[in-house]
Amino acid sequence: MWLLNSSIGKKLIMSISGLFLVLFLLFHMAMNVTAVFSEDAYNMICSLLGSNWYAVAGTLVLAAGFIVHICYSILLTLQNRKARGSDRYAVNSRPKTVEWSSQNMFVLGLIVVGFLLLHFAQFWYKMMFAELMGHHQIELGGAMVSTQAGAQFIKYYFSNVVIVVLYLIWYVALWFHLTHGFWSAIQTIGWNNTIWLKRWQVIGNIFATVICLGFAFVTIAFYLKSLL
Ligand code: HEM
C-alpha cells in the first residue's frame, strides 16, 4: 500500500498526525490559560474531563496520534540516512536557505518527547492515571490533593524555578519543531502554490508563537504568583 510504503505516503501520515497534534496543543494551551484567571474554573474543567469514558477515549486517540507521528518520524529518518549512505559523515555544508530547524526536526522532536515524559510523570500520571487506579486524592508536596484539582498541581510545580526553566526550554524546542513542522506538513499535503507558500509559513509561525507563548504565560504567571 503506497500510503505505508512510499516515502511520500509516510510523509503524508506524519503531516496529518502532526496537524492533529497541533490542534490538541491549541486546545490544551487555551485550557491551561484559564487557570491563570480562575483556578476554580480550571479545576471544574479538569473534573469534567477527569477519567470519564470520553476523556479516556480522547486520551487514547491522542496517544495513537503521538505513536503514529513518532514511529513514522523514526522510519523516515532511518530511510533518509540509508539513502544518503556515508554522505552524512561528510562535512555538513548546508545551504544558508535551509533553516536550522528543518535540519534538526528529529532531534527537536526527541527533546519535545523527553520533556513530555517529565510532564506526564508530574501531571497525567498523578491525575488521570491515579483516578483510573481508583485514587481520588494524591500526595503532593506533603499535602493530600484531589486528583481533579489541576490548579493545585500547576501551583505546586511552577513554584519551583528549576521546573519553570525546564518547561521554558521545552517550549523553545517545541516552537522550532512546530514552525518548521507546520509549514512542511502543508507542503506535503500540496497546498503550496507560490502565493500561499509564504502565507502558510507566516500562519505556521503565528500558530507556533501563540501556542508556545500561551504555555509560557501560564508557567511564568504561576511562578510570579508563588513569589507573592
Ligand atoms: C503551561 C503548561 C502546561 C500545563 C499547565 C499543562 C497541564 C496539564 C495537565 C493538568 C494535564 C493532566 C490532565 C488530566 O490528566 O486530567 C496535562 C496532560 C497532558 N499534557 Fe499538558 N500542560 C502544559 C503543557 C503541555 C505541553 C507543552 C504539551 C505538549 C507538548 C502537553 C501535553 C500534554 C498531554 C499529551 C497530556 C495528556 C492528555 C490526556 O490525558 O488526554 N502539555 N497537562
Tell me the layout of helices and strands.
Layout: H1 2-5, H2 7-37, H3 39-49, H4 53-84, H5 100-103, H6 105-132, E1 137-140, E2 143-146, H7 150-157, H8 161-189, H9 194-227
Antiparallel strand pairs: 1-2
Helix pairs in contact: 2-3, 2-4, 2-8, 2-9, 6-8, 8-9
Bound molecules: protoporphyrin IX containing FE.
Short description:
With 228 residues, this protein is mainly α. The protein has nine helices and two strands; from the N terminus they run ααααααββααα. The radius of gyration is 20 Å and the shape is globular.
Taking pLDDT < 50 over at least 5 consecutive residues as the criterion, the unreliable ranges are none
Count of helix runs: 9
- What is the strand tally? 2
The order of strands across the largest sheet is 1-2
CATH topology: 3 helical TM bundles of succinate and fumarate reductases
> CATH homologous superfamily?
Fumarate reductase/succinate dehydrogenase, transmembrane subunit
Which sequence of SSEs, written as H and E, runs from N to C? HHHHHHEEHHH
End-to-end separation: 59 Å
Structural class: mainly alpha
Protein model, in words:
The protein is built from 9 helices and 2 strands. By secondary structure, the protein is mainly alpha-helical. The protein has a two-stranded antiparallel sheet with strand order 1-2. A hairpin with a 2-residue loop joins strand 1 and strand 2. Helix 2 packs across helix 4, helix 2 (7-37) packs across helix 8 and helix 8 (161-189) runs antiparallel to helix 9. The model has no long low-confidence stretch (mean pLDDT 89). It binds protoporphyrin IX containing FE. Protoporphyrin IX containing FE is lined by residues 25, 28, 32, 46, 49, 58-59, 62, 112, 116, 119, 123-124, 127-128, 150, 153-154, 174, 215, 218-219. Residues 25, 28, 32, 46, 49, 58-59, 62, 112, 116, 119, 123-124, 127-128, 150, 153-154, 174, 215, 218-219 line the site of protoporphyrin IX containing FE (HEM).
